[in-house]
Specification:
alpha+beta; Rossmann fold; 4-stranded antiparallel sheet; elongated; transmembrane helix; glycoprotein; membrane
Length: about 160
């Protein structure tokens, strides 16, 4: 009886070993991402930190390719001017890189040529976190966290709402 019980324990431990290895690999991959250095943060870590952004957005003659596909140009000399306080819609068929435009404004990507300006300032000079605190985006397929709609809207807001 003891031998049968011991055999089961050894079998269970053996099956857990592969799970532990998988967990270890997952944790390693998370730390690799966390340890990555981004070239998007401005050279001056303090960067431009405005208290208020008016919202004039200008993309000037931007050439862009995704880092994973540097040989495939998504935009060639692309320009758009979005006036502050105006409602602007980017309307095109699915897969036409509308979200890439937003990714450039939010500094998720750097253009290959020329740049993006907010209130007349090159966004490369903005402090990344400060800039993103001034930007709100509701995507076509929003991801909600557990909680009420109000809690989701207020998520990571540094000041009290209502």
């Amino acid at each position: 009886m003891i031998l049968i019980g011991t055999g089961r324990v050894i079998t269970d431990v053996g099956s857990m070993t592969s799970d532990i290895t998988k967990w270890s690999d997952m944790v390693d991959s998370v730390f690799k991402v966390l340890d990555c250095y981004t070239r998007i943060e401005p050279k001056d870590p303090d960067g431009h930190q405005p208290k208020k952004i008016i919202g004039q957005v200008e993309i000037r003659d931007v050439d862009f390719a995704y880092p994973a596909k540097p040989d495939v140009l998504v935009f060639k000399s692309f320009s758009i001017n979005i006036e502050a306080g105006k409602l602007t819609a980017l309307v095109r068929q699915s897969g036409s890189d509308k979200s890439t435009i937003i990714g450039l404004v939010e500094k998720f990507y750097d253009p290959l040529q020329e740049s993006v300006y907010i209130d007349g300032k090159n966004i490369r000079s903005y402090h990344l976190r400060v800039l993103r605190k001034h930007i709100a985006l509701v995507s076509q397929e929003p991801t909600l966290f557990a909680g009420t709609i109000r809690e989701n809207i207020a998520y990571d807001v540094s000041h009290k709402i209502f």
